[in-house]
Amino acid sequence: MKIFINKRIPEAGMQLLKDANLEIFIPEHENLSHEEWLSYCKSNDAILSVGGEFKFDKDFFNECPNIKAIALFSVGFDHVDIQEASARKIQVGNTPDVLSKATSDVAFLLMQSVARRASYNFEKVKSGNWGDFDPLHALGQELYGKTLGIFGLGRIGYEMAKKSKAAFEMDIIYHNRHRNEEAEKNLGAQYVSFDELIEQSDVLSIHANFKTEQKELFNASVFDRMKKNAIFINTARGGFHHQKDLYDALSGHKIWGAGLDVTNPEPIFKNDPILELSNVCVLPHIGSATEEARNGMAKLAAENLIAFSKGEKMPACVNPEIYG
């Protein structure tokens, strides 16, 4: 089986593929045009896809009928038309669990960084503008006993809730497609409606899988109803929030601050006015950027393809329904 990998992955995954005697192709340069990417896809049987810049939609499957399996180097699979893949009996695998702690660490980091205006104060130090002591300037807020609202309380959201409960004794509320009984039992998490979530949260953190119908769900009408002291955290997908509406809410003091590991668009434009605000911290989508998480992702993506090559179901198969 010939496997196309569009970008280098950690050796931990590469070695597994080599040991399984699978034929691997990685292009000499990684900044592929869509045409280059598509031509490589047409020449291989399976894809280990790193990044989400290219879409696996109906047009792709029509142009590449040779593709039999797709292993994603990510948890999210919003760039794959799963229904179309399933109709064609194409297995799609992702990498859940292995990056839950690392990604929740970044959400937890952003929450604290925004609460204490860390980015703004770091820039003051870098510019030599430390200034004299001012008891009223750019004050932060404490998180102790506040309410953390989680939109999408899955594996990553659970880790975020656990950290916040342990460190700051935060009350946990959440909105989900399904109840999370483990979180309710272990963390005292309370299931609420979406309206209650946005109205009651002091910190609102997004951890859901993105779906097209949720595009810019967090927009002006939502920000207008949040608490004025609220901190908005997004480490899931930039498509969840309307970037200009978020800027307006922040600059207009409708909400208190925002921490983003994902932006809309992504990457963010360097002149985006949101970057000038003192109550914002933006990171370049580093949720899984630890050696441990990336090694785990590489291994699981490789294991997905190895299982497929043996005629087995991928261990992290997104569309197991194709097996009936």
Automatic annotation (TrEMBL):
Molecular function per GO: glyoxylate reductase (NADPH) activity; hydroxypyruvate reductase [NAD(P)H] activity; NAD binding
Pfam families registered for this protein in UniProt: 2-Hacid_dh, 2-Hacid_dh_C
Keyword annotations of the record: Oxidoreductase
UniProt GO cellular component terms: cytosol
Catalytic activity: (R)-glycerate + NAD(+) = 3-hydroxypyruvate + NADH + H(+); (R)-glycerate + NADP(+) = 3-hydroxypyruvate + NADPH + H(+); glycolate + NADP(+) = glyoxylate + NADPH + H(+)
EC category name: oxidoreductase
Ranges where the D-isomer specific 2-hydroxyacid dehydrogenase NAD-binding domain occurs: 110-287
InterPro entries, alphabetized: D-isomer_2-hydroxyacid_DH, D-isomer_2_OHA_DH_cat_dom, D-isomer_DH_CS1, D-isomer_DH_NAD-bd, NAD(P)-bd_dom_sf
D-isomer specific 2-hydroxyacid dehydrogenase catalytic domain residues: 5-319
Matching Gene3D superfamilies: NAD(P)-binding Rossmann-like Domain
Superkingdom, taxonomy of origin: Bacteria
Enzyme Commission code: 1.1.1.79, 1.1.1.81
Family, similarity comment: Belongs to the D-isomer specific 2-hydroxyacid dehydrogenase family. GhrB subfamily.
Stated name of the protein: Glyoxylate/hydroxypyruvate reductase B
Species name: Candidatus Chryseobacterium massiliense
